Known about the structure:
- By secondary structure, the chain is α/β, with parallel strands linked by helices.
- It folds into two domains: 2-38, no CATH class; 56-323, TIM Barrel (Alpha-Beta Barrel).
- The chain has helices spanning 2-16, 22-25, 31-37, 41-50, 56-59, 78-87, 106-114, 130-134, 139-152, 178-195, 244-255, 276-289, 313-323; strands at 65-69, 93-99, 118-124, 156-160, 200-204, 229-233, 263-268, 293-299.
- An eight-stranded parallel barrel has the order 1-2-3-4-5-6-7-8.
- Helix 9 (139-152) crosses helix 10 (178-195) and helix 12 runs parallel beside helix 13 (313-323).
- The chain starts with a helix and ends in a 12-residue tail after the last helix.
- The relative contact order is 0.13.
Amino acid sequence: MIRKTLLPLALVLMALAGVSGCGLLGGDSDPAAEAAREPSAGASSTRAQQLPYDVKKLLHPAKKYFGVAVDGAPSSMKPVDAFAKTVGKEPNLVGSYSSWGDGFNAEGAKNVFEDGGMLYVSWEPFKPSLAKIADGSQDSYIRKYAASVRKTNVPVAISFGHEMNGHWYPWGTKDTKAATFVMAWQHIHNLFQEVGATNVIWVWSPNVINPVPSVKLNWYWPGDAYVDWVGIVGYWTTSGAHTFDTLYGPTRRQVATFTDKPVLISETASEPGERRRADVRGLLGGVEDNDDVLGFLWFNIPKRADWRIQSSPLALAEFKRLIADDAFGFEVPRS
């Protein structure tokens, strides 16, 4: 009898003291306890952010990419901003070069993304040989690079071993067999997939076939499952092809025999001279007129020639006029 009397009294005293025992009796639950048991909106958001950035939305954009490579970028975006001020529009693709063995420039990738663009990396395997990359001896480095790309979690375009159909690089025709290039490419791609670095757009970038017509590009093709874009490297020179079709057409037509992947003019510029203004008109006009061409990346660095567009006032004026078209440039989605 004593215990039956004391229990209700204890409950009354607890209620008066503001300590609810109702949760024990099946009434309203304690909000703090519920919050501890259920994931918050912030936790759900964190999990969503941990998913790899989905690059599918960037593979076939409605507008054209406008890219540039400038000294100092992307570790600093000041050179890109200066270029944008010069031409009147902010690029949304920023080119960079990374030698095999270098770490991934995570800070640079974030810099570009925060400015509304995407980093484009030309990954250059000067050494060791592609055979060493293909046989697995470089896996530790590849996994570390891929893990950094995944952790950074912004979209990145990577072109491994560009201009592989030329003889001037150690991964090119003089020192490396096409089959070895393909095996190395596929091996790298597979490791990125294993690490979860799916926030990469893979760009296969041969040189235009005009100076190297005897090399069959399909020998170097890793397969549609391993490539997102075909990047074509081709410069407008005073003694070379002088229309969009004569410069890029032969390569595009050969590529079209084995894949329908979209094309990016992944490295280009026009050599200073009397034809430069017409070259700029041919480049931008050709990119805009061809639906399968995603855009272009202008090499605005003096190297063997002064490729900087600002070095030729008339060509710069033409560039500014044409790039102002709404067809060029767009902000890369934040998520």
